[in-house]
UniProtKB/TrEMBL annotation:
All copies of domain Helicase C-terminal, residue ranges: 198-360
Gene source species: Paracoccus sulfuroxidans
Domain (Helicase ATP-binding): residue spans on this chain: 15-162
MF (Gene Ontology): ATP binding; DNA binding; helicase activity; hydrolase activity
Protein name per Swiss-Prot or TrEMBL: Superfamily II DNA or RNA helicase
A Pfam cross-reference name: Helicase_C
Keyword annotations: ATP-binding, Coiled coil, Helicase, Hydrolase, Nucleotide-binding
């Protein structure tokens, strides 16, 4: 199988990294061909007389890896519940859940390949790496951080980066997404847990909002008849979304992590054939789902996780015959929160910087603008490249009405942060006591609201003392 030039360079760079490191992490955007790259690395290892163990956490990823490895002429065995093992095969493709129960049946590998390696910090993966301490480890991911933004330094010792999303778009390997967005939804009272919005509180907030109806009207107006995935926050939320589309005469189905295998296959087959237009997904399809013909993603769930945001949008970026656009309908403010997916981001084993993972909550400057004419999002520029509209100097984000999505651009993201920052400052100015600050901290979901409140109150008191000082007595 012939590799693209950047894929061949990746294989070479991984080899160089292994000369001085036992554990290397390779980063490549969704759609760049990570499976092809690690298949070539595995083939090279087998040609050198080595054994290889490929790890994944879902059946779809296991089947995808197994199929690709065979296309490289490799003999493989499966380590997964319900499948007969082939222990003599030089390449074993294993379910991480099954492998931890069958260590004694699997020979010690010389090379371990971890697909979706941002999950490598989980206890199950740690057990595998501890079981085979002498093996070299190659991890591959589009988002080299945990969903909470923390890094992977504990699992890998060096990072090898492939081309960025912008690079692959410029070279014609991925499509440039066109994002439409509204203002950031009001999530007052929704707390943060493990680095992201608390799922139960977020679900409650969205289930009583107009977001499902807004999704339908936006889809009908902007992308009628196109195949899409709606990423939802709960099973109920996904059901409400599918119901809203079906009520409008648009065939929609729900897919969750608990959907039986055969039923799941049928749903995805109908999506690919065009019989089903929208699949409302919860806890699935963000990883390892390849459908080049997918034309739309609907971001129905807000997230503070840059990794999750990039994984969701990455589903729509692949090139396909007859596909002329990759559309992002963002009803959750994620594009305003994190920026355009093609922005250049700095990755390291320490994780993402705060300004990359939660820029909508700290007032940092963004590099995109929301066009008031076509409602599209683009990189900061005086003229919208999508419709030709010349922007006014006023860079405030238009207030989104129910059902109205706008195309996102960059200064609006900056304006959204400033507006949020101004609102937070105003809320703090209105606090008149320590108790007021404690209540405010709790309403924002701060884990240590009392400590934060004490510091803010101490700062307030110091300012009061400073402004009341009138100089030395005469």
């Amino acid at each position: 199988m012939k590799l693209r030039d950047y894929q061949q360079s990746a294989v070479s760079n991984i080899g160089v990294a292994f000369k001085t490191n036992k554990r290397a992490l390779f980063v490549l955007p969704t759609g760049g061909g990570k499976t092809t790259i690690f298949s070539q690395v595995a083939a090279d290892a087998v040609n050198d007389g080595e054994s290889v163990l490929v790890l994944a956490h879902r059946r779809e990823l296991i089947d995808q890896a197994n199929e690709r490895l065979k296309r490289f002429g490799l003999e493989t065995g499966l380590v997964i519940s319900g499948e007969e093992m082939t222990p003599d095969a030089p390449v074993q493709v294993a379910s991480i859940q099954t492998l931890t129960r069958r260590f004694e049946k699997v020979g010690k590998p010389d090379l371990i390949i971890v697909d979706e390696a941002h999950r490598a910090v989980a206890d199950s993966y740690a057990r595998v790496l501890e079981e085979y301490p002498d093996a070299r480890v190659l991890g591959l991911t589009a988002t080299p951080c945990r969903l909470d933004g923390k890094g992977l330094k504990g699992s890998f010792s060096t990072i090898v980066e492939g081309p960025s999303i912008e690079d692959l778009i410029s070279r014609g390997y991925l499509m440039r997404p066109i994002a439409y967005s509204a203002s950031i939804p009001d999530l007052t009272g929704v707390k943060t847990r493990a680095g992201d919005y608390a799922a139960d509180q977020l679900a409650e907030a969205l289930e009583r909002s107009t977001i499902c109806g807004d999704a339908v009207s936006s889809y009908q107006r902007i992308t009628p008849g196109r195949s899409g995935i709606a990423f939802c926050v709960s099973v109920k939320h996904a059901g409400l979304t599918a119901d809203a589309f079906n009520a409008a005469g648009i065939q929609a189905e729900v897919l969750t992590g608990d959907t039986p295998k055969d039923e799941r296959a049928g749903i995805l087959a109908r999506l690919r054939s065009g019989e089903t237009k929208i699949v409302a997904s919860i806890e699935t399809l963000t990883e390892g789902f390849d459908f080049e013909g997918l034309e739309v993603v609907l971001l129905m769930r807000p997230t503070k996780s840059l990794a999750l945001y990039l994984q969701m949008v990455g589903r729509v970026l692949r090139i396909s015959d007859g596909k002329d656009e990759a559309i992002v309908l963002d009803l959750s403010g994620n594009t305003l929160r994190h920026g355009l997916v093609e922005e250049i981001r700095e990755w390291s084993l320490d994780g993402v910087k705060d300004d990359q993972n939660a820029r909508a909550t700290n007032g940092d400057t963004l590099k995109t603008r929301l066009c008031k004419m076509c409602f599209g999002v683009h990189k900061a520029a005086p003229v919208c490249p999508l419709c030709g509209h010349t922007h006014e100097k006023d860079d405030r984000i238009p207030v989104a009405k129910a059902g109205e999505l706008r195309r996102i651009k960059a200064e609006e993201l900056e304006a959204a942060k400033r507006a949020l920052s101004d609102r937070k400052k105003q809320e703090e100015r209105e606090c008149r006591s320590l108790e007021d600050f404690v209540k405010l901290g709790k309403s924002r979901g701060y884990k240590f609201a009392s400590g934060w409140a004490a510091k803010r109150w101490e700062l307030r008191q110091s300012r009061v003392r400073a402004t009341s000082y009138s100089g030395w007595p005469k």
